[in-house]
Amino acid sequence: MKRLWMAVLLLAALLSLCLVNAWYSLTLTRQLSEQLDQAQALVEQDQWDQARSITQEVYDSWNGHHFYLHVFLRHSDTDQILRTFRQVLTYLSFRGSFPFLGKAS
Q1: CA dihedral over 83, 35, 71, 22, signed as positive or negative
Q2: Helix (H, G, I), strand (E, B) or coil at 17
Q3: Is the pTM of this model over 0.90?
Q4: What's the farthest any 2 CA atoms get from each other in the chain?
Q5: Which residue from 39, 61, 84, 96 could staple onto 51, CB 3.0 to 4.6 Å apart?
Q6: Each residue's pLDDT tens digit in the chain (105 positions)?
Q7: What is d(CA 44, CA 37) in angstroms, rounded to the nearest whole number?
C-alpha cells in the first residue's frame, strides 16, 4: 500500500510541474505577443523607430529564454521564430532609415 501512495504522490508532483510549466510558457509567450502587437500598432502609426526598439526588446527577451523555449517547444517552431525576428528587425531598420519608401503618392 505504501508503494501505491508513493506512486500517486510522484504522479501528482509530475502533474503539478507540468501544469506550472504550461502556465509559465503561456504567460511568457502571451507577454511577448502583446509587446509585438504594440510594435505593430506603432508601425501602423508610422513610428518605425519605436516599433524597432520594442521588437528588439522582445527579441532579446526571446533569446534570454532561448534554452527554455527550445527545450519545451518544437525546434522547428523556435527556429522559424528566430528567422522571422531577424527578418522583421532588418525590415524595421531599413524602413526606419528610409521613411519615404513605400508611401503611396
Answers
A1: negative
A2: helix
A3: no
A4: 80
A5: 39
A6: 889 999 999 999 999 999 999 999 999 999 999 999 999 999 999 888 899 999 999 999 999 998 998 898 898 999 999 999 999 999 988 876 665 555 543
A7: 11
